[in-house]
Amino acid sequence: MQVALAAVLIGFISQRIWFSGPQVLPSPQSTSAHVVAAAEVPASWPHVGGDRGLTRMTTAAAAIDGRVVWRVALGSPLTTPIVAGDGALYVGVANAALVALSSVDGRELWRSPVPGQLDAAPAYADGRLYVGMRDGTIAALDAVTGRVIWNAGEGPTFVTSPVVDGGVVYASALGDVRVFDADTGRLLWQKRDDELASSSVSPALSATELVVGTTGRVVVFDRSTGAQANFFGLRNPAHVVVHDGQVIVAGQTRVVAFGLDQRRPWWDPLRTVWGQLWILGMAPVPPDQPNHWIQHGERFTYAPAIAGDVVVIATQSGKVRGLDLRTGQERWKIEAGRLVSAPVTTSAGVLLITPSTLVIVDSATGTERARRVLDGEQVGGVTVTTGGTYLASRGDGVVALR
């Protein structure tokens, strides 16, 4: 009797978690809005992660040997990385504004007020900027004029950048995930999760999935239905990257890669009980979650960058590793000195940013290729496009190298 009851319970749990019937979600009014990958349009850097998968890749060459063609002071410290699109740069500043600058000469094009300040960069797509706010709303602005086109979605605070694809805006807040029509601002679907309350992981997209990091796991949603397709339990994931059918997650203690097509086994709802029985010596060691590879991680790790068949992992202390994208094997490791921003993959190699130096290393070997000491500059981040290499200072300045 007990065995039969347990079997029924397991079947019920499995059905509820993995096989509940999905419904097709409402379609957006237009499917034209996309964050175009910087690797495809190197004149832009439309998202904090470079593209919808957050791979931090561009085919532009970092102009680290270029001359300073302009320098501007914005009158208030920068609060977000710089994004670029259609001849303009966009950056948040501490005195409650989003600022647009001409990428040609640094001239201020417009300045739009925001509630409080911006904690994450906007996303540029098809002539619009999509901005998540501290007051829990998300706004679409005309990228040329700064005019607000729509403002929607009151709820928990946004501290990560939205990502736009197929006419849909995907945004992860402190407490939920919200998905909007990019054209009208209509809420298409929403997922609430207690674990999201302290999450600050930017969402990433594949063609068919949305990947979101929470306090204790990385969740994969089906973009067409909103149904949970998979999740990977991991303590405090800091960054997620989606590339070529694979999710790479950088956490405090581990770097993990798993396939978008992988699913948790049918017995997974009983993993906690199994673990307790194992501790008591009453069961074998529970198998690990399905994955491609697992490597050790470290605290204060920046967002990874994809460089061909290598994923580059860097920490604030300057430890930089090149891991094989498919096996996780460490190909190289270097000490680069204190870093102030995540690495960027460029056509010349992987760009590493210290407070006063730009360094290019070979993605296959980690060997240094070029170095530029920035006399008198204190850099907080770098954005690379074919139009220039733009330095965000640790104060209120933006500098263009060309």
Explained architecture:
This protein has a single domain (2-401), classed as YVTN repeat-like/Quinoprotein amine dehydrogenase (Methylamine Dehydrogenase, Chain H, 7 Propeller). It is built from two helices and 32 strands. The chain has helices spanning 2-18, 271-279, and strands spanning 68-73, 83-85, 88-93, 97-102, 108-113, 123-125, 128-132, 138-142, 148-152, 163-165, 168-172, 176-181, 187-192, 204-205, 209-213, 217-222, 228-233, 239-243, 246-250, 254-259, 293-296, 305-307, 310-314, 319-324, 330-335, 344-346, 349-353, 357-361, 368-373, 379-385, 388-393, 397-401. The strands form eight sheets. Strands 1-32-31-30 form a four-stranded antiparallel beta sheet, with no helix packed on it. Strands 2-3-4-5 form a four-stranded antiparallel beta sheet, with no helix packed on it. The protein has a four-stranded antiparallel beta sheet with strand order 6-7-8-9, with no helix packed on it. Strand 27 and strand 28 (357-361) form a beta hairpin.
Describe the secondary structure blueprint for this structure.
Layout: H1 2-18, E1 68-73, E2 83-85, E3 88-93, E4 97-102, E5 108-113, E6 123-125, E7 128-132, E8 138-142, E9 148-152, E10 163-165, E11 168-172, E12 176-181, E13 187-192, E14 204-205, E15 209-213, E16 217-222, E17 228-233, E18 239-243, E19 246-250, E20 254-259, H2 271-279, E21 293-296, E22 305-307, E23 310-314, E24 319-324, E25 330-335, E26 344-346, E27 349-353, E28 357-361, E29 368-373, E30 379-385, E31 388-393, E32 397-401
Antiparallel strand pairs: 1-32, 2-3, 3-4, 4-5, 6-7, 7-8, 8-9, 10-11, 11-12, 12-13, 14-15, 15-16, 16-17, 18-19, 19-20, 20-21, 22-23, 23-24, 24-25, 26-27, 27-28, 28-29, 30-31, 31-32
